[in-house]
Design goal:
Elements (H helix, E strand, L loop, with lengths): L1 H7 L3 H8 L6 E4 L7 H18 L6 E4 L4 H5 L3 H13 L32
Parallel strand pairs: 1-2
């Protein structure tokens, strides 16, 4: 919402803030999600306007982060991310571009004790 306001306001300070971003090399969208319907279209159009305004004709590296998106995709997590990111950023994203984090326990589970509220192991 704030980015939308910065791009559309005519206030001199807002125009200077946007002007300072011209020549953009990277665009990072934190909390990438599977957007649906109007919200998805709004975000995708905002990204396109931003890229056209700040780096017309220039290849901008688009980066999206999400702690939850790959949990939505199961075995096809990379494909889910590729599909959403390609549409949202209006550029081709490849499965090899997607970094997925997996958790691996590094402690001995037999040495871990959980106690409930009553203090029982």
């Amino acid at each position: 919402m704030m980015l939308e306001l910065l791009l559309t306001r005519q206030d001199e300070l807002d125009q200077r803030v946007v002007g300072n971003c011209e020549g953009l090399d990277f665009f990072v969208l934190d909390e990438l999600h599977t957007y649906r319907g109007r919200q998805g279209a709004d975000v995708a159009m905002l990204v396109r306007r931003l890229r056209e305004r700040l780096a017309p004709g220039k290849e901008v590296l688009c980066i999206g982060t999400s702690a939850t998106m790959t949990s939505e995709g199961g075995e096809g997590a990379r494909e889910v991310v590729v599909d959403v990111a390609s549409k949202l950023f209006a550029t081709e994203i490849h499965a090899t571009d997607v970094v997925i984090e997996t958790l691996e326990r590094r402690t001995d589970p037999t040495q871990t004790r959980c106690r409930d509220r009553g203090g029982h192991p």
